[in-house]
Glutamate--tRNA ligase
Amino acid sequence: MTEQNSSLRVRTRFAPSPTGFIHLGNIRSALYPWAFARATGGDFILRIEDTDLERSSQAAVDVILEGMHWLGMDPDEGPFYQMQRMDRYKEVLAQLQAAGHVYPCYMSVAELDALREKQMAAKEKPRYDGTWRPEAGKPLPAVPEGVQPVLRFKNPQGGVVAWEDKVKGRIEIRNDELDDLVIARPDGTPTYNFCVVVDDIDMAITHVIRGDDHVNNTPRQINIFRALGKEPPVYAHLPTVLNEQGEKMSKRNGAKPVTQYRDEGYLPDAMVNYLARLGWSHGDDEIFSREQFLQWFNLDHLGRSAAQFDEAKLRWVNAQHLKAMADDALAALVAPQLEKRGIAAADLADGRLARICALFKDRCDTTVALADWALVFYGAVSPLEAERAQHVTEAITPAVDALADALAGCTWDKASISAAFKQVLAAHGLKMPQLAMPVRVLTVGSAHTPSVDAVLELVGREKVVARLRNR
């Protein structure tokens, strides 16, 4: 897109191939076009590039849609599926052919392989040599019988293809380095680079923000745009996301599906925050809300170097968002996890869950960890034998029994529970940790919790007294 039409309404797209489960590296490539559309009041389009029939699957499409919905990145238009647009591609292909931009090539696979071997032996770049390219005064070979040709795009000769990349700066590729691209297979099926251009034209895409593994496709696509009489969009090619071992993040290298992070208790806003920082920055800001991100985002602060995924950092970012989240909102996320673990929805309707979340959220980094704590308030408790042996000793049992008796009859609030502790400590000549540790182990299964009076109040009198007595 040229500067004079850059005032058009921004339209961006995310165009994944459903050939495997979408991971964080892929979704980062969706985050920036989504954010740019939202930040500028534009439109974000989802396009599923499913022409690889052997490797595409509905299950992979479902993970794309689920993952984007979970992250709050729903598209304004789409999903559009390339396989449903074949008639449109063939229509444009016929237009290009009629205008002389496309020609049939009958070179067989064996001939192409032999040509490449010869070029590589001569230390030349392997490429199609234009045998079937029609030129004025050039005789073409005889058409072989029974061979269905591929269709090749007549790439311009001489000059350069250049664009101002919003991440990489000016890029220039000499046309002579590009051979004539196959844009339709022998059965007439159009190929990737051609379909992408037709889609971007039909969907009026103004900005293509994608991974830098597409840089080599861009000059070819720009030439097809121009052959169709259209100006190409603005391009921004994002650096790769590396995994923790420094390799390109991929399914082969152990990357997890995006939806697995949802199941592991990460918050969508924390994921957006973390992913935003994998290739973009706003000063030194590390923790920010979705609203702040969309207010600040532009294409001028995209990083040029590869970003490395760090799960410990992601957990830290998640913990910060979890701490800042409203207790009722957290309880709404924890409740379904408790129901999955067998706690009845009716048991969760007593209003305690939001208060439990308030008490424990500072020591948790995922909602799963928070649900682990909340479970002891609703289900059975099984203290670790090592903790029980260390803290619940014979010497302390008289004080535990005395506390159970005191708690059975006191008013059930934090102040009264605290007073009952003080009374028992004084009567038995103990310090608070000597009694609080075994009480915690017996009532919630761990010696380390927030304030013991607050914890016991939320467990409830009946369970507390029973757990102290039935040790």
Summary: The radius of gyration is 32 Å. The chain has a mean pLDDT of 94. Residues 71 and 414 are 39 Å apart (CA to CA).
